[in-house]
Amino acid sequence: MSMLIGQSMERVYENLVWEHFSENRQMLFLMGPRQVGKTTTARRAASAIGEATYLNYDDRDHRRQILGGPAAIAATLGLDRLRESQPVCVLDELHKHGRWKSLLKGLFDSYGDQARFLITGSARLDVFRAGADSLMGRYFGYRMHPLSVAELVSPQFSDALIREPAAIEDHEFDALTRLGGYPEPFLKGTDRFWRRWTRTRARQLLREDLRDLTQVREVGQVETVAELLRQQVGQLTSYSSISRAVGASVDSVKRWIKILESLYFVFSIRPWFTNVARSLRKEPKYFLWDWSAAPNEGARAENLVASALLKATHLWTDRGLGDFQLCFLRDKQKHEVDLVVIRDGAPWFLVEVKHSASSGLSPSLARFQKQLGAPHAFQVALDAPYVDVDCFSRTDPVIVPARTFLSQLV
Fold first, then answer.
1. Residues 167 and 138 in one domain
2. With left for phi above 0 and alpha for psi between -120 and 50, is residue 117 left, alpha or beta?
3. Which of 32, 160, 192, 210 can bridge 144 by disulfide, Cβ–Cβ 3.0-4.6 Å?
4. Do 222 and 342 fall within a single domain?
5. What number of helices (H) and strands (E) belong to the chain?
6. CB–CB of 329/336 below 8 Å?
């Protein structure tokens, strides 16, 4: 398999870092799953901006400098010297520092006008190691996702939410679907490497990260919950069924699933209702951050599209282009649409996912589009060949190739 982008592929998030620091003085928090490319992206982007210093909390020498506090970090950056431009400081895996919030508050308050700070972490920086000091107003957070069709086509972006369609190479689309969007297995392009990488990552996530970052002792039960969620990707979640299967209370199961979300093993989407409280009472669906681990072809297709839409809604929201949510639709008669993107509180477009283009158009698309007044309704087919036509030029329910539809996101 030949990769036209190579091992040093440019990511859309490098442009995001440049945009952030050209417009804002706040610290940049780059959050995302293990091995999604945060460190490589942060270092490349920082070096492209100017003089860059990289400090990793997992490195013993770097950790000594970090534990020395703001003054020690400032000395490492050479902030006592007159310089033409502000240096960029990348602080990696900082969430493992027991008082990382206090450290960053002092660092930014003392040196925020003399340097730019880029903070990365594979566990959500807004969840773990909560400190007493608030960082309100001192940072903007961005959520980093695996590769997507649109990012492989072009890592550039603009203020336009929807791109013009562009073709992805067949071998790249096949690798993305089969091996997932994490850079290393995608670039390697072999099933053998993917199997070894997936097994190692799962062990690190469900053993090391779970042990190091949480107080959970029931590791075996959490692993069972994770496997049950993997087996039922995209299905309505029954907490009571999971609790019976693992021999734990419903409250414990919910708490463990929240931890799995925080560790970027799964993400949840909820049914959309105008009544937010009603939505929160309903059972969510869970999808994998690594869709290649979904249990079958149909689940993998739905997970791939859901992941691409989550990436788009996160990036649009994080860049301040609006308030976007990813939900699903289901009524009392059990009519359902897989996914719906909510833009500033109103349904924008509906998405039903099918592996085959030969599946007939789902009647639920027209039903919900008419009911909700959404401008667009798509049935996305994974096996359909690319068509060089803007999907969003259509306002009636329509079957569209995944290659075309996904290329128009981010």
1. no
2. beta
3. 32
4. yes
5. 17, 12
6. yes
Using alpha carbons only, what angle is made at residue 84 by residues 82 and 86, rounded to the nearest 5 degrees? 90
- How far apart CA 293 and CA 308 sit, in angstroms, is 16
- pTM for this predicted structure: 0.94
Q: Are residues 134 and 192 in the same domain?
A: no
Give the position of tokens 């340097």.
115
Burial class (CB in 10 A: 0-12, 13-18, 19+), 357: middle
Over the stretch 199-239, which tens digit does the pLDDT of each residue have?
Answer: 999 999 988 888 777 778 899 999 999 999 999 999 999 99
Q: What domain range includes position 95?
A: 12-143
C-alpha 275: how far from its chain's center?
A: 26
Within a domain: 76: yes
151's tokens: 């990012």
Total count of residues recorded for the chain? 410
- The answer to the question of residue 4 being in a domain is no
336-343: strand order across its sheet: 285-288, 266-271, 324-330, 336-343, 346-354, 376-381, 398-401
Both tokens of 274, joined, read 């105008």
pLDDT tens across 31-59, in order?
999 999 999 999 999 999 999 999 999 99
